[in-house]
């Protein structure tokens, strides 16, 4: 995948999350009330070239909103899910694996 395509894909995924991360607060703790910079921690579990794209987007966002909003990107290990449901009866059951 070309770098520009990857950057666009990450931008489409990250920017709405950044925009919506400040929604829903009704308290007086926002940056305008205190006259300071608001810090948002953005968790991601991507690896490889996506990390460079995320860091570039975060840097561009921070430069554009200096003094108002600061985003801190933080890597979080991927969350593994474990399904406990049984498969439909119409197909043979696969071997069960432990989630531990």
Show unreliable segments: none
- How is the main sheet built? 2 strands, parallel
What separation lies between the terminal Cα atoms? Answer: 35 Å
Beta content comes to 5-15%
**How confident is the prediction overall: mean pLDDT?**
76
Query: What level of helicity do the residues show?
Result: 25-40%
How many individual β-strands? 2
> What is the overall shape?
extended
Please write the string of helix (H) and strand (E) elements. Answer: HHEHE
Which strand order spans the largest sheet, edge to edge or round the barrel? 1-2
Radius of gyration: 20 Å
Tally of DSSP helical segments: 3
Q: Would you tell me the structural class of the helices and strands?
A: alpha+beta
Overview of the structural elements:
The protein is of the alpha+beta class and 100 residues long. Helices cover 38% and strands 14% of the residues. It is built from 3 helices and 2 strands. It has a two-stranded parallel ribbon with strand order 1-2. It is extended, with a radius of gyration of 20 Å.
Produce a short descriptive summary.
With 100 residues, this protein is α+β, with helices and mostly antiparallel strands. It has helices spanning 3-20, 31-34, 49-64; strands at 38-44, 69-75.
């Amino acid at each position: 995948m070309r770098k520009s395509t990857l950057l666009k894909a990450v931008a489409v995924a990250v920017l709405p999350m950044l925009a919506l991360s400040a929604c829903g607060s009704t308290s007086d703790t926002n940056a305008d009330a205190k006259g300071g910079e608001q810090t948002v921690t953005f968790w991601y579990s991507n690896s490889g070239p996506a990390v460079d794209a995320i860091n570039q987007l975060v840097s561009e966002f921070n430069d554009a909103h200096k003094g108002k909003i600061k985003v801190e990107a933080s890597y979080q290990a991927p969350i593994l899910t474990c399904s406990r449901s049984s498969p439909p009866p119409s197909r043979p059951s696969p071997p069960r694996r432990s989630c531990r």
